[in-house]
Design goal:
419 residues, Nucleotidyltransferase, domain 5, DNA polymerase, domain 1, 3 domains, 16 helices, disordered N terminus
């Protein structure tokens, strides 16, 4: 049963009659109840993604927490609506998320897959800047020493001494009817999020690091929502040892695989495995008859995609040969740039770098891995070679990390003659 209650109302914890919302009229009734209120939305989803390109959305869980507006009495209690368990197999879920865009904030835990699903299936035409700010409690807790990937169940246990069962996590969320155990599990996934958020915000405020954690939540949101284009997919497979021509072939094959996976609604690996992609890019077969030499390309992959891929690779070779024969055209301009190799510091300097990083992390009471991921480190080392290092830093090393860690490490590296 969905209802509205004041925070602290013991009835709010009674999940014996959780309602599965399967009619548009009921959903519209619930959304109308928050139409003129300021609110925060606590969101989770249940889905299955085993043999498809797009996840199959099975359930959306929403808990709404409202606050009095300026026109309401200052003494009015904050209200809680839900948990709402909305069935996307029975109604148009876009209506729900179009309303949730009006929230002051979205609060989620380990939000990456949920956000991608909402973007791809529910809000396909909504620009990123129209989403509310995201608060990911997993990120907030990483600033409190709980590691980078603490689960929701572990977070509740360790922070709030609340235990919830995991048995339904991998159950069939597309089956109907959903069991009472599934509905209860789903409701609990959002029921305790407000308490978890309050716990994290209170401790981060005391440590003076709440703005840092919120900054990381924003970076994470932008990273998840900025899905690479098909022609950029090759970068996930690229290696600094590959030539520009090999990268061009890799780019072509990865874009083909992405388009085929999306068109057939198949996982990428079901179209071409990573090993097949690399083998095709490096060996450059020009005819289907040459594919049998590539042990990493299966017979099924050869049969389904061999003709199309070898034709593409042959066309690329012909195009580049034609350009090379034309003295007025530089064919290299058509090729992807080389991937820069990781910057390796001399051992004494590497030791100084790690010591300084760990010193700063200890002073801030944070994990060094939280402050400096491997990718950021390589980008920082590359930036030191530039005239203006700060202009070449990733966004994550600006903001609070710039003064705290990026500038001290750049100063250290530039002070050493071998940096």
């Amino acid at each position: 049963m969905s209802y509205s209650s004041s925070v602290g109302d013991p009835n709010f914890r009674d999940l014996a009659e959780v309602e599965l919302i399967q009619s548009e009229s009921r959903l519209n009734e619930l959304l109308l109840s928050i139409k003129d209120l300021r609110f925060e939305a606590f969101i989770d989803t249940e889905f299955i993604k085993r043999s498809t390109y797009y996840p199959k959305l099975g359930l959306v869980q929403v808990l709404i927490q409202t606050a009095p507006t300026e026109s309401q009495r200052a003494t009015e209690h904050m209200q809680v609506f839900g948990p709402w368990l909305v069935d996307p197999l029975s109604l148009d879920i876009k209506v729900l998320f179009e309303t949730l865009l009006q929230a002051d904030r979205w609060i989620m835990h380990a939000s990456g897959e949920d956000l991608s699903l909402i973007r791809d299936l529910c809000l396909t035409k909504t620009p990123i800047d129209q989403y509310p700010p995201l608060i990911d409690t997993q990120i907030l807790l990483s600033f409190l020493g709980f590691g980078l990937q603490i689960s929701y169940q572990a977070a509740l246990d360790q922070c709030l001494d609340i235990t919830i069962a995991k048995a339904q996590a991998l159950s069939d969320w597309l089956a109907r009817p959903l069991s009472d155990e599934q509905l209860t599990y789903a409701a609990l996934d959002v029921l305790h999020l407000p308490k978890l958020l309050s716990h994290a915000e209170e401790h981060l405020n005391s440590a003076g690091q709440l703005t840092w954690a919120l900054e990381d939540s924003k970076h994470y949101f932008l990273g998840v929502m900025s899905e690479p284009a098909d022609h950029e997919r090759y970068l996930a497979h690229a290696h600094f040892s590959y030539s520009r021509l090999e990268l061009a072939r890799l780019q072509l094959i990865c874009a083909y695989r992405e388009a085929q996976a999306r068109r057939q609604d198949l996982p990428r690996q079901h179209v071409l495995t990573h090993q097949a992609v690399i083998a095709l890019a490096l060996r450059n077969p020009q005819k289907p008859s040459e594919l049998h030499k590539l042990k990493d390309v299966s017979p099924a992959e050869r049969k389904r995609h061999g003709a199309a891929i070898t034709e593409m690779l042959a066309d690329l070779s012909d195009k580049l040969n034609d350009q090379q024969s034309n003295a007025c055209v530089n064919s290299n301009q058509q090729l992807p740039d080389k991937i820069p190799p990781p910057t390796k510091l001399p051992k004494p300097l590497s030791k100084l770098f790690d010591e300084r990083l760990n010193q700063i992390a200890r002073s801030a009471g944070l994990d060094a891995q939280l402050l400096m991921r491997r990718r950021w480190k390589n980008q920082l080392l590359q930036s030191v070679k530039q005239f203006d290092p700060q202009a070449h830093l990733p966004a994550e090393l600006l903001g609070f990390r710039e003064k705290l860690i990026a500038l001290p490490l750049i100063e250290l590296l530039r002070s050493e003659p071998k940096a």
